[in-house]
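On clarity, I found the account of how folds are encoded harder to follow than it need be. Since the whole study asks how a given chain folds, the encoding of that fold should be made plain. The format is easy to grasp once an entry is in front of the reader. For illustration, here is how one protein appears when written out as sequence plus structure tokens.
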Amino acid sequence: MEVMPWNGFAFLSSGLGSFAGIAVYIWLALCLYIIAQKTNTANPWLAWIPIAQYILALQIAGKPWWWIFLFLIPIVNIVLGIIVAWKICEARNKPGWLAILLLIPIANLVIPGIVAFTD
């Protein structure tokens, strides 16, 4: 059986993609955890549980828990995501317009760190 050169590349890239995805998840969960601690939100450990982190974000933003169902609606989820992020920024005494920057690909990894780690 002949090994095609792209098979090794596919294996390598899928492994790197998985690693990058896990790294991004850990980074964003850590930022949400720290934001929850700094805003004195109950149960900051929810930041590490995939679906529960949305409920935690809604708690930080001061929005009702049932908004999580609205996140299942296309387009509405983008608008609500910006609203929730805006309120989270304001809860940390940061300008709300930072939430708009979350739509920019690299900025959406930097902004959570700014909101979480700066005072």
